[in-house]
Every structure is written in structure tokens, then in C-alpha cells.
User: Fold this.
Amino acid sequence: MLSGLKTLMTGVAMAATVMVAAQAQAQGAAVKTEVTIDASKATNVIPPEIYGHFAEHLGRMIYEGVWVGEDSPIPNTRGIRNDVTKALKDLGVPVIRWPGGCFADRYNWKDGIGPRDQRPVTINTIWGGVEESNHFGTHEFFDFADQIGAKTYIAANVGSGSPREMSQWLEYLTAVDNSQYAKLRRENGREKPWVVDYIGIGNETWGCGGDMTPEHSADLFKQFATFADNYNPDQKTPETRMIKVMSGANVADYNWTEVSMKNRNHNVHALSLHYYTSAGLNWPPSRPSMGFDEAGWAVILKEALHMEELVQKHSAIMDKYDPEKKVALYVDEWGTWYKTDDETRPGFLYQQNTLRDALVAALHFNIFHKYTDRVKMANLAQTVNVLQAVILTDNEKMILTPTYHAFDLYKPFRGATHIPVSYEAPKYTHGDITLPALDISAAKGADGTIWLALVNLDPNRPLEVNTKALGFTAKSANGRVLTADKIDAHNTFENGSVVAPKPYEARGGNSGLVLKLAPKSVTVVQLK
Assistant:
């Protein structure tokens, strides 16, 4: 499989050839392949928003994961726990989507404003039938986004709500005059309007968002979008406008994309796509998050790579109706979805996060980098304590998962320019599954630095990468590597550093620069 990252090119075009050492000898020996990185063909900048996140009122995502309340012994700022916000700020989360998901289409924003002791208690019927205190509402979400430095992506209630309800929420959020809802916002403690960067008008309208046909969903989007007014005076240019997102396809429902694009109007700025590794092709989710064997390793990585086919085929349909690529594709729900680890509360979707999940994340990043002409945002599901979370908590305890570290490794690619990569990858075979053993992404930063992300999917064999350069000579490489002894290695509350990045350095010799890749690893380096 070919993958790569887009990088900004300045000055004279150059090309680099990366030789991956690999010759099948005995088990554990390396194999060889030639990898060409043609920097002269770099065109598209990698949007930071493809490293976005998703926070739904689901399980312990919001309550305990983010919100503990101002009276909690857990250190917090206005009720939002400090350790989680620091970790997410350190990660540089570019955008966060809220309040759902399926929860959004049963949510009335008015339940989440005003004094908390006067907010109504509702029932989260979609996720576990538990009580929803509504203590975390509009003000708390925008405070959270501000604390972590993220753009805001709200999901409007189209499934059970009305255009008027959505319009009033936007007035509450963005109006600056003395209108009814602007005054109400001020009465509730917020003088200035907020910036709403993105609004999802409909979520999974093919399923939990209304069980609609694509034709009905497209028509309903037009109706709601007509009344999705943004009053904020700072968002009146094409560059600052509020982006309206149409509910798109589930996995390989290409007819949904066809109908949506054919019937769209000027209000469609982006179309969503949802795909969960494991659950997307294996419903209901039945595979374990831990304790799996090599067959479980291989099948999950195979299904993660399926994302490329989905992006390719949905993008091709969009190209037919939108050759100028004015409508973006947002993969605003992606990640692994296994059988829950908490059988007493299956609706909470809690699962452990292993080294395998870190490789799943890296493979997704490499895919998204290749298609940033169309893919402008992606949102991991979900941020804390749910599905492929980057953070897990247990009351006052908190750990960073392997997926967190994968996001952290890839930070240099945000805003860099993708460099196309081509090569014949060595094969990794287990049973009836054959995968590329190597997946690479390359990019050039604004400062001219060339970055490589290399994923070794083979859990048994190391790879060696000999680099040669046309136009420049890479004399050394330094960065970090993420790997572990076991394929299901994971961090625990007793030991939070079982899977964590380690420094990586390589220096060139007479035969060139050699990069040695550990089995089952993600390595990100800069060439010097």
C-alpha cells in the first residue's frame, strides 16, 4: 500500500530515494524495497484538523473524563479536570466535536444552560439509559475548548429537533445585539459571542439520527441549513465563516454520497463519513481489545487499511459532482470499536488501548495525508474513556494511551506539505491475510525539514531503511519510536509507561543513512 504526506516545497525541487533494507533470509531478517519520495511533486498542505477529536455524552467521556464539578477533590478549573486539559493542550488538539454523535439528536441545548442546580435531569436513552445531569452544557463545552486551545464543532439536533431550536442555539452562541437569546447568554455569564467554527447539520441520519433515506436527509439538510445563521461579526469572510457539515455515508454506502452530492445546494461546505475499524465490517463488535493473538493483530490492521478504499471511492463520487473540490470530506468519526471491557455497563463503550491501536492510528494518518485535496478534517472517536481514547481515567488517576503517543509523534505533520511516496512494500502474511509490512508518509515542514513516518506492521521482523538523496544528502535522522514487547501491550493505572515513545537516532556511513525499524512499531524522524 502506498501512503504519504504532503509537504510545502520552496526553492529547487528535489527528490529523495529511501531504500528499505529487506531480504528474506531467516525469521527476523530484514527485507529490501526501494522507496521514492519526490519532493518536487509536493502540493497539498496537511490540515491540522485531520488530527481532530470527538467528545460525546457517552459513558465516562464527559462525566469523570472531562467534567468533575467545581467541588471535586480532583484538581479542576471551573469543574473541568486539569490533568486531562493539560494533556490535550500538550497534544495540540486542533478541533473537538460535541455533544454527539447519536446523543446530539436527542439533545435540547436549553437543558444545558443556566444555574446547574436548576438544569433538568434527562435520560441518556441512546447510551446506557443513565441519568444526564446536564451539568456539562454549552458554556462548559466552550470553556473546555478554550482551555485546550481547540476549534469548536457542534452537532445540531436534526433527528428530533427543529430548525427553530437550532437557530435559537446559534443566536445564543453568536449574537452580539440585544436579541432575546443574546441577552439570555449574558444573563448566564457570557458577554462576548463564541466562535462556532463548524456545525454538523444532521448526524448519522441513515441510522440513529432519524433512519432516513439519502433523499430525505439531503432535503432536510437544506431546510435546516437555511436557518443556520451565524451572527458573529468576526466570522463574515470566506476564511472565517462557520462551516456547515452535511450528514454523510456509513462505511461503503456510496449511493448515499451520490444522492447527497447530486441534491446538494450552496450550503453544503462538507460531507461526513463514518467508519470504525472492526465494528465497520464486523457488527456487532465482538473482538477483544486485549489478549488477542497474531490473527487478531492482522485482521484489525487489514480493516484499518480499508479506510483508503473508502476515501478513494467516496472522493471519486464527490469529484464527479464537485470537480473544483469545494465540498470537503470530513471523516468525523473513526477509530477502533471492540467488544466492551466493562460488561456491567456495555453502553459505556469502554475499552483498553494497546500498541495495535497506535498502529491503527498511524495508518489512518498516512491515508488522510494522501487525500488532503478532499479530506480536510478527521475526528477520533473518542477523546477520553470511550472507544479508541487517547486518555483513560479512573477517578483521580489518569493515563495516556498508545494512541495518544501516536498523535503526539505525528505533530510535525500538521500544516506541513505532503510528499508523494511510491514503493513496493515487503509483505507480511499471517494465515490468509497478507498486508504490506511497511507504510510510509513523508512531508516537508515550513522550515524545510523533511519528516518521515514509518510504520512496520510486521510484529515479528525488523526492517532496515537505507536512505539516498537526490538534491540533498541525509546524513542523520533523529526522532522517536513507539513499540513494545507484546502486540497487546498497554498502559495501566499501575504502570502508565509500558507503551511510550523512546528517542531514535541514526547516522549515515559509507553506504548511506540506515534506519532500523523495530517490529510492530511507529517511527517518526526528521532527516538532516
